[in-house]
Amino acid sequence: MYKSIIIGTGPAGLTAAIYLARANMKPLVIEGPQPGGQLTTTTEVENFPGFPEGIMGPDLMDNMRQQAERFGAEFRTGWVNSVDTSSRPFKLQVDGLGELVAETLIISTGATAKYLGIPGEQDNVGRGVSTCATCDGFFFRGKEIIVVGGGDSALEEAGFLTRFASKVTLVHRRDELRASKIMQDRVRANEKVEWALNRTPLEVVTNEAGVTGLKVLNNATGEEEIIEANGVFVAIGHHPNTGFLGGQITTDENGYIVVKAGTSETNVPGIFACGDVQDTRYRQAITAAGSGCMAAIDAEKFIEAMEHEQTAVLG
Fold it and tell me: What are the helix (H) ranges across 122-176?
């Protein structure tokens, strides 16, 4: 029986582990196939407070893990197949670990960025291919960038990247955008943005120096084209990693966990969510870490209240 089990080891889960471990709660942290989350696929992180010279994403996550271990957090590797939330304590079925039982759960399984699935893409994530303009835009100052996508998020990223890039080309496979009219009007008014609509991405083009462009199919002419650029930002959405919950936790229409405003509380008492799995707006390492702190404090208070009730009954 664990007082708290944390599922996921990105900034949110590791921060929750630090706080719970320091509170002598001895949390168990379950690592999935990508310990450290999305930050392990990035290179230099320059917007996390406390590192004026920046820090490599994997190093930041390793530091946070060591900090949690220092205070007594336990780490085990496994894949959570299912969670029984019908009664407390909660029961988890975990590949490689069997059944685990906990008084509280913190879900910090994150959201996985959707990729195009084309040649040259995965090989160059963090090396010219990105899914986060806020994270990586600074590294493309004065360079040409491609943004792939047609929704509000893609146009928002395109507009943001014009702060750094000399030119931003927006590539979309249809000749019409899904983005709202006000967002389209705003970006179309930006002189740095060029448009490559009705074009299907085929391959990220590279040489020994890195990304040099994107090969696309012109759907109108049937011809292949190369759009030159130093970076490709993929902005076609995210998948929140909530499938293992089996619909027992309330989510929005896109699968993101719904939490009570101003807290990390889910619809099930004793289960808390933090990080990108419940964040549809910010998706930053620092906001994930902050929500991990919230979840740890919420879980600690929940356990304290539960123990107080038990003591009162026994008394």
Answer: 133-136, 152-161
Confidence (pLDDT) at 113: 85
The rounded distance, in Å, linking the Cα atoms of 60 and 62 is 5
Strand pairing category for 199-207 and 90-95: unpaired
% residues pLDDT > 70 (the chain): 96
| Among 59, 132, 152, 293, the one annotated catalytic | 132
Answer yes or no: 298 catalytic: no
Beta bridge partners of 213: 205, 228
What mean pLDDT, rounded, does the chain reach? Answer: 92
Q: Tell me the whole-structure pTM to 2 decimals.
A: 0.79
- Find out whether 217 and 202 touch, Cβ atoms under 8 Å: yes
pLDDT tens per residue, range 62-91: 999 999 999 999 999 999 999 999 999 999
Q: Give strand pairing partners of 216.
A: 201, 225
Annotated active-site residue 136? The verdict is yes
**Residue located via tokens 């929704």:** 151
Does residue 41 register a pLDDT over 90? no
- Cα–Cα distances (Å) from 237 to 115, 187, 275, in that order, read 8, 19, 16
Res 46: pLDDT: 83
Structure tokens at 31: 């690592």
Nearest residue to 298 (alpha-carbon basis) of 63, 6, 44, 43? 6
> Which helix H or strand E contains 61, and what residues bound it?
helix 57-70
Name the percent of the chain in helix, strand, coil, to the closest 5.
Answer: 30, 30, 40
